[in-house]
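Structure ticket #2291
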Amino acid sequence: MIYIIQLIYIIEGQEEVFDEFEHIAIPTISRYNGRLLLRIRPDDNAFIEHHMDKPYEIHLVEFDSQQDFEHFKDDGERKKFLHLKAQSIKASILFQGTKL
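Resolution: structure written out below.
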């Protein structure tokens, strides 16, 4: 089992485009033995302390294997909509790990 945490930073004014991409990308996760465990859109009150920009969304996803994650990233249908991701996301930080 692998775990992916992604901090997502949106280009201001592109929230609807981002939601359109997520509408396609999130259901794709389950096709590759993955599960979206958390999708968090924190408001300013959720941050007790921070030393970096606050993300628009935080995702926690698990996949059964690294190969499943790679297949998800290579999904042809998802790739058709990567232009929406490029249009709406300023930056993202991805952390990958395993359960200890």
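Closing remark: The mean pLDDT is 96.
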